[in-house]
Design goal:
Layout (H helix, E strand, L loop, with lengths): L2 E3 L21 H17 L3 H12 L2 H7 L7 H13 L6 H7 L14 H24 L2 E6 L13 E3 L2 E3 L8 H11 L3 E4 L5 H8 L6 E7 L1 H13 L4 E5 L6 H4 L9 H9 L7 E3 L1
Parallel strand pairs: 2-5, 2-6, 6-7
Antiparallel strand pairs: 1-8, 3-4
Helix pairs in contact: 1-4, 1-6, 2-6, 4-6, 6-9, 7-11
Length: 281
């Protein structure tokens, strides 16, 4: 037994988002997105219908931007404006990033996420975790896919292909991939570093196995929400947790250390309620 205060990780800025905001931990973000989901569920108690509406708005950047301005009250406008109120502290770098984009990159659906799309994606991830977490935990086989940017960048990574994709070999005690993989294995979830697997084909094949398939994703927010939507289309229960900040070469030109919140990850895999980030495990 030991007391865990967050993960002991240092706050880091991202290219567009950071779940730290201006705080020393990500606790404020997770409370904010939980409060936002609760407020939206008061407006639309049907969680499936709410996810559909949030997803619709998230795919229409111009509409979401229009709804962020004052106007007649409606469910879509309330969702967009409540999301901004709760989540704006975590997306302060988005506007500067978008202003720097070349014309070519503006057509990249991941790189060109607007601030409203970030807020809606954060909300959608939270809602999907609530909607599908129970089913995910009951599946006989559960797979998790981690980004390679989460590894210890100072170590000589020894991860190697194993069954589905690359698997962590535990070569660095300070590696976030190692920490996440260890936690997931303790909960009978198979962790893989996503490098080469054709996920759509893999999921279609494995979901027909006895006992079914559950999937967990860890990624930056735009990529995570896209991956979770794919699982929903395939009728696979999915949960996800975003990286604390987007700092890989795709965003910053070179790989920079990033992290993920282990306390929140444990809460998702165990199905426990969200409490204080100072917890005894």
């Amino acid at each position: 037994m030991k007391t865990v205060h967050g993960t002991g990780i240092q706050p880091v800025p991202g290219k567009t988002f950071s779940l730290f905001g201006t705080a020393e931990s990500t606790e404020g973000y997770y409370r904010a997105v939980s409060d936002l989901a609760g407020a939206c569920l008061l407006l639309q108690p049907d969680i499936d219908a709410l996810i559909t509406e949030v997803r619709r708005l998230g795919k229409r950047a111009r509409l979401a931007r229009k709804l962020s301005a004052p106007g007649a009250t409606s469910l879509p406008r309330s969702i967009v404006q409540n999301a901004r109120v709760h989540l704006a502290p975590y997306t302060v770098a988005v506007k500067e990033h978008l202003a720097e984009l070349s014309l070519f990159k503006r057509f990249d659906g991941v790189i060109s996420f607007t601030e409203e799309q970030y807020h809606l994606a954060m909300l959608e991830i939270e809602l999907m975790n609530r909607a599908f977490g129970g089913r995910f935990r009951t599946k006989r086989r559960k797979l998790a896919f981690l980004p390679h940017c989460l590894r210890d960048l100072k170590a000589d990574c020894r991860a190697a292909t194993h069954d589905i994709d690359y698997a962590c070999k535990g070569c660095s005690v300070v590696c976030n991939v190692n920490a996440v993989s260890t936690l997931l294995r303790q909960h009978n979830i198979e962790p893989y570093i996503w490098m080469q697997a054709n996920l759509k084909a893999l999921f279609r094949k494995l979901k027909e196995e006895e006992g079914g398939l559950g999937v967990m994703g860890i990624a930056c927010i735009p990529e995570l929400v896209h991956g979770m939507r794919m699982c929903v289309k395939l009728d696979i229960p999915v949960v996800g947790i975003p990286l604390n900040a987007n700092r890989c070469a795709r965003w910053m030109g070179a790989f920079r250390p990033t992290s993920v919140e282990l306390v929140e990850l444990r809460r998702i895999v165990e199905g426990s309620s969200r409490g204080s980030f100072s917890e005894t495990h």
